[in-house]
Automatic annotation (TrEMBL), chains A, B, C, D:
Belongs to the aldolase class II family. MtnB subfamily. Its EC number is 4.2.1.109. Residues 19-216 form the Class II aldolase/adducin N-terminal domain. It comes from Schizosaccharomyces cryophilus (strain OY26 / ATCC MYA-4695 / CBS 11777 / NBRC 106824 / NRRL Y48691). Pathway: Amino-acid biosynthesis; L-methionine biosynthesis via salvage pathway; L-methionine from S-methyl-5-thio-alpha-D-ribose 1-phosphate: step 2/6. Zn(2+) binds at H107, H109, H189. This is Methylthioribulose-1-phosphate dehydratase. Pfam families: Aldolase_II. The active site is at E132 (proton donor/acceptor).
Amino acid sequence: MNSGELGCLEGGDLRICGELICTICQDLYNSGWVTGTGGGITIRSGDAIVIAPSGVQKERMRLEHLFVMSLKTREYIHKPLQPLKPSQCTPLFLAAYTCRDAYACIHTHSQEAILLSELFPNSDYFSASGFEVLRHIPRGTKKNGFYSITDTVKIPFIDNTAHERDLHDSLKAAILAYPEACAVIVRDHGIYCWGDSWQDTKMNTEAVEYLFQAYLRSRKIKSN
Amino acid sequence: MNSGELGCLEGGDLRICGELICTICQDLYNSGWVTGTGGGITIRSGDAIVIAPSGVQKERMRLEHLFVMSLKTREYIHKPLQPLKPSQCTPLFLAAYTCRDAYACIHTHSQEAILLSELFPNSDYFSASGFEVLRHIPRGTKKNGFYSITDTVKIPFIDNTAHERDLHDSLKAAILAYPEACAVIVRDHGIYCWGDSWQDTKMNTEAVEYLFQAYLRSRKIKSN
Amino acid sequence: MNSGELGCLEGGDLRICGELICTICQDLYNSGWVTGTGGGITIRSGDAIVIAPSGVQKERMRLEHLFVMSLKTREYIHKPLQPLKPSQCTPLFLAAYTCRDAYACIHTHSQEAILLSELFPNSDYFSASGFEVLRHIPRGTKKNGFYSITDTVKIPFIDNTAHERDLHDSLKAAILAYPEACAVIVRDHGIYCWGDSWQDTKMNTEAVEYLFQAYLRSRKIKSN
Amino acid sequence: MNSGELGCLEGGDLRICGELICTICQDLYNSGWVTGTGGGITIRSGDAIVIAPSGVQKERMRLEHLFVMSLKTREYIHKPLQPLKPSQCTPLFLAAYTCRDAYACIHTHSQEAILLSELFPNSDYFSASGFEVLRHIPRGTKKNGFYSITDTVKIPFIDNTAHERDLHDSLKAAILAYPEACAVIVRDHGIYCWGDSWQDTKMNTEAVEYLFQAYLRSRKIKSN
């Protein structure tokens, strides 16, 4: 393992991934989708995945806080010098990487996910149709194309657990059971969303969150 | 066609247009009116129109991503070196340029447009009166003057289509049928808004979106 | 009259006032209280008042756009080189300067002002009590002290008019009739708010807008 | 007492605390939790506590505005050269420092605190359960661990008073009566929130405010 302060994050693709993580953490903080230390993000370059730490404020994330893990061996290629722990989302991120060959994964604590959990307490999935934004949501991966506005998109719900790591099995099961979903809603908690690249992942997250907002506002205006 | 990386965007008026597109894309992203890769903008300088690409994140748009087209010949004067496609809104933007002699056009994915579609499922247009902001909305072009607060402004609805390009005919028809409108609402989708200059276009967009918000909030408070 | 590009705005107190106007215009734009070219601000230094132009986007305001007028003679000490017009709010700002010896005045197009107009169509004033923020609202001027949380603050309504300048007489009448108000609500339009310094004016505006928001949200939660 | 302009804020830990106060004041202003001159923050380094002044706009706070007090002697180690007064929250901040061995304290004027006061006019505390964000809220201090999602968190209410300083006794009583709370809600006013470090304090504040928002939105969607 590289013992320099930045190690393999010093340059090349991994540095780019690391810098993107810091920038996108700031974006996510500004959007209100992460708060305190909630939420997280990981970006992959080949076999190496860059992971943010646990407990660091998202809007103050820096390169020297980040971890790098080998997807194949699950060993850390690089750890920060400071005594930090990797994100508690790491096992969940690994599920997205391995079940879907994703290249990034974002975990938000969006309140819209909580509200949808309340609205559909007994549903296995959230579904919506008729919104333009469906054209921006891939059928699991963009290799399968995107939804059309008359399609019905389904995004599975899973129950929340006492510890983030305990979400692993149900998250993996939902990813496998809904091959045309690019996100999973964790009830009363937030979403996990992935994509074929970091750009796709960020755009998928924004599209899914936009759908949630538009759905909730649209439902409310109809009920008035 | 110019083969340099920036080509005709290197300097002069076209560079200014290009830089404005990048800045305004960031503004639109911050406002929540574009998300993921939704929405778009074009600015014109004489016969040349500068167009943003499809699929690039709005808040990361740079000069080297942009296209330049001749309004007369419809041929590209400049294309980005990267393998990008021009905005899917291009035919729609062209309709605004040719039917109205506009000098810029903005396409938002504002959720207020979706909500108005829900509220008025059978109307040909949205109408409002009594708001101060009407004084900031031109009668199609500012050459015709602006609305007064006691006037009724009408903004036409058109139905959404499976592909952005298929909106062309109905958008053009609406532009021609409502000569005193500076915007069209695409149901469940967003708006197209144009103006006599890029400044007018940005101000018209903000004024129309403000009217939508104020109308919706005002309607809700009356119904409580 | 000074014919240099910046003239008397080149340095000293007037430059500071001018730079503050540009910065605060950006702040107001970010807050959503001005939009398109709506809203405005003026700051005074002795006999000289610095005024923003009409029709310039608030978030792009620069020193070279500004006017300077003598409060005593009502003549322009400095005009921008560009063919701009002074803010249509100028007569209204003058009313605040002369009736109250104010040192700045802000005009917002806040939607909360519109909503309060709807809620109280027949009232001469908006009133509220019990909110902590009352302790931050002066009795017209801070020389008279501030409200306490058990006091009732009254902010007068005036009707909107077809032209901004036509608000002058009713605004002046409201300022004189409500000596303990630091703001006036123009129905379906926005507010005018002033203070003993630019800092006071900005803080008064924020306090009054906060009161409007808190009042509206509080009323709604009680009615559910 | 140090008579230089920055004095003991010139360097070292105290300068870091001072710079953090300025940055976090800007963050709080952007979040809408402080407005005008409402709200406040203090950060501690050993026996020295850095305190923001009263009456300075939060988004324009600078090092030269700050006070430093000895926690033990309650004397000022450093005062700003300008004729400023220390925050009116100082006695309240001292209660958090002494009753809880906190290392920072944030006072917000969040409207959610006002709304919860309205909803629960006769309750001694606000309580909530089932939200993921509970895992980010410490049992008073993180030395006692964090809540789990099935726990019920209780945050005490205290009544507002005519002067900020008069809150002292009831705030202290609430801090002592609710050893597992990291915040107190002042009715119709805002919250006081503390933590084991400035990072914890900022994260606790965000977590508590997030809980308030999620609770209010969730309650509303259930009642529709």
